[in-house]
Amino acid sequence: MDELITQIQSVWPLVMQAPWGFLSASLALLILGWAAGRFMYGERIFNLKSRIERRDDEIAELKKQSSDKEEGDGTAGKNFLIGRLIGQYLHEHKDAPRRMQMGLEQPPVDWVNAELAKLEEDWRVKTGRNGEYVFYDLPRWG
User: Which of 59, 62, 65, 133 has the highest Cβ tally under 10 A?
Assistant: First the structure.
């Protein structure tokens, strides 16, 4: 820093002889630097903005697909109801297996289907390959 101040002090008389020339030269160098930076990084900034816009569009599309899927088959509401029934089962059966209390096992399918029948739901559950419930609709007659 001391060297910079010393150098400015040594050229100061020259700057004071032509202040407008020095100011215009400094301004021209500043504008050239800005233009060079704008040229060099303008394309990069444009590419990054377009990537962000594309990502936002993809996120919006995935959210739309997700909400359409949940609205279409009612899975979200069914999962919520099953969660409530599991809580009810654990509350009523204090001696439930530890694995069920930890969420590693599900309550018996017969009990869940009986509760769904009490609630007059038009769907039931069965056990899938990995032990989780699979929803199915009851047949409708007439």
Answer: 133
Asked whether residue 10 is assigned to any structural domain, the reply reads no
91 and 109 share one domain? yes
Rg, C-alpha atoms of the chain: 36
Listed residue (90, 82, 91, 87) closest to 109, CA to CA: 82
Look up the domain containing 101 and give its range.
Answer: 75-137
pLDDT tens by residue, 80-130:
899 999 999 999 988 888 888 888 888 999 999 999 999 988 899 998 888
Per the confidence metrics, is the pTM higher than 0.90? no
Q: How many CB atoms lie within 10 A of CB 113?
A: 15
pLDDT tens-place string over residues 39-79 = 888 888 888 899 999 998 888 888 777 666 555 567 778 88
